[in-house]
Specification:
This protein has 225 residues and is an all-alpha fold. 52% of the residues lie in helices and 0% in strands. It has eleven helices and no strands. Helix 2 packs across helix 6 and helix 9 packs across helix 10. The relative contact order is 0.13.
Length: 225
């Protein structure tokens, strides 16, 4: 009768333990991946937005985007009353090659996903301040583009995605109403140039628009509420 050697039996036992450990680890990992994210805490988001985190060298968001997300700097977007899921997605996108910005990429990478969600939740419930169109000579062109698009160029009406009053569509499309003209134009140009690539739809549409058309629709959007 053949005997099983002790070293051989020990090796089989160790291998079995290793396989079992890997299996359990896989199950635990899958469970963790399926676990829903914690509900965003707008109060914590407010603290981070208003005070930043000095220990990490993270400045207060309001230093660039204004109190309650109402930026007074034309090149920095207004964030108040923005759709929560959209703000969170942009903060995530800033950590990828799809949306690179020297300032925002740096700070977005410092935030945990929970912090991104908290800030987004805070901004979503902030009251926005009304903007205004400034160029009376182009406001009608802007209105036509926003509401009807540019048929001969295959540019869809902005309203078809962003809503009649530019309030956006939750999860899918951002609120645009009252946004600074300079910021909106800059984003349209970034989409056109390929500097911003986190929306295939906007890249396609922006590539079909002239500078004048971008400026006209941006000015019209600024006056929407």
């Amino acid at each position: 009768m053949n005997r099983v050697s002790v070293p051989s039996a020990k090796a089989v036992f160790v291998k079995s333990l290793l396989v079992a450990s890997l299996a359990l680890g896989g199950i635990a990992g899958a469970a963790e991946a399926q676990r829903p994210a914690a509900k965003p805490d707008a109060a914590k988001g407010a603290t981070l937005y208003e005070s930043g985190d000095g220990a990490r060298g993270l400045p207060a968001c309001l230093s660039c985007h204004g109190a309650n997300g109402n930026s007074t700097i034309a090149v920095n977007p207004k964030l108040s009353n923005q759709i929560e899921a959209y703000t969170h997605k942009q903060l995530v996108d800033f950590t990828t090659p799809q949306r690179v910005n020297p300032v925002m990429t740096t700070y977005a990478k410092m935030l945990t996903d929970e912090e991104k969600r908290n800030v987004a939740a805070y901004l979503a419930v902030q009251k926005d301040k009304q903007g205004a169109a400034k160029n009376k000579d182009t406001v009608e062109l802007g209105r036509k583009i926003y509401r009807g698009g540019i048929g001969e160029k295959g540019v869809a009406a902005c309203a078809s995605c962003h809503g009649a009053a530019a309030g956006g569509i939750p999860i899918q499309y951002p609120r645009l109403a009252g946004q600074h003209q300079d910021y909106t134009v800059a984003q349209l140009m970034a989409f056109r140039a390929g500097a911003r690539t986190n929306s295939a739809q906007m890249t396609t549409l922006a590539q079909r628009m002239s500078d004048a058309e971008m400026k006209a629709v941006a000015d019209y959007i600024a006056g929407l509420r």
